[in-house]
Amino acid sequence: VRYRLLGEVVGEESVVNGTSWTWQPPTTDFKGYMAELYRQENGTDVIVGTIAVDVSSDPARFPRYGFVADFSREKTAEKTQEEMAYLNRHHINWVQFQDWHNKHHWPLGGTRTQLDEVYMDIANREVYTSSVKNYIEAQHRFGMKSMFYNLCFGALKDAATDGVKEEWYLFKDASHTTKDSHDLPGGWKSNIYLVDPSNKEWQKYLNERNDDVYVNFAFDGYQIDQLGNRGDRYDYKGNKVNLPKTYVSFIEAMKGKHPDKRLVMNAVSSYGASQIAGTGKVDFLYNEVWGDEADFTDLYTILKANHQYGNQALKTVFAAYMNYEKGSGEFNMPGILLTDAVMFALGGSHLELGGDHMLCSEYFPNTRLQMSDALKTAVVRYYDFMTAYQNLLRDGGEEEKVTLVCTDASKNLNLNTWPPQKSAITSFARRVNGKQVVHLLNFLSATSLSWRDLNGTMPEPRLVTKMPLKLNVAGKVSKVWVATPDAHAGASQELAFEQKDGAITFTLPSLKYWSMIVME
Asked: What's the pTM?
């Protein structure tokens, strides 16, 4: 087995007997490694298996977000351990608890001193307090952060009996006759009525409710939600409310009360993103993307904007629901992998994996689509890849435009620089720590330039092999290597190359969805 930090071998040892071994990685913080298990056949290394290793003291540096959304009686200590082991294999280091709470304005099932053994969530599903605790314990064994979900401004129809005041609400009119509401299906507990997040009494009230939660559950923080642009809304006194501004006040109040707890807040369709980032009090940026940000180019725009909003320090996680209009069956693997390839190559990550299912809608418990075995295998490779190469993908660098051509005209390949085009291979390049990194993304067979793959119809891309490439470079190149999550289990391969007249030529072994070329 050998251990690589990007293209460099940092350790190697023989593994002859048994099924496991231990490795003590270097102590340098915030590094991603690839462990490659291989054997030699006729003088050639054959990769047997790989796994990434993330050495990071704080998961906010490279967030990889998963979720849990079912807290029924079946979620025993054994079952939750098994599910979190599954997420751990994907290097998930943050987990969002969706629809775990009793009421938006009273998240705890029961009271601070008397917990309910079982209570109903918003959809009248049973939630077992023991199941919530089992998940948190399992996550902490794997070093994950457990984040409880809740709106910043939600109250149910019985909120007055729990101490929520009429003067705290948001209204659709200046004369406070119609409360703003998010309407839900008939069989559910209640519609959700919206409160002014900047109301100081509401902030104090919810902080006390959150305190009840933290006393009883070892949650690491609060995943704050909102509902996007509501149009003109008013407080009780008839003042027009600037919602993004209220988020700043809300975040600061939450952090002030529980300074040791983590905070993340959803920017729905980028609404309030700059204000959320500007607080300096969230651990990373979280964008729930919809039809108004449906194109691959929108992902790039969001990442670029977030980079500025967060002073280059905050990473981005996309809550992006795949195959949204496909009614049943399996996820469409080409759609999932192409979207993950683009998100990861651009430096983002994707909230998509639960302990027991993959996300297909904003209602996280929805399990209408399943993952095929092939998709499960591929997704592990993609998460290994994002983790092993995180220092090239998500650790700074400057975007560059590169000129890349295929020198074999008979291959009939159209190469373009970002943004993507149909029937083309798109390159996206960055200079990172003295290395030139060029991502090739395969849109040769793409029927759409939307990441959503709404009906699960994105075709599998045409595989390109042995592609001779010429790339203009400045300065002397000492080494060229390539890695792809689609071949060799993500392990890197060094390439032979020639350099002359300000360009290098080499042959790319293969491109399926995504290949990353690195010039040192």
From this structure: 0.98
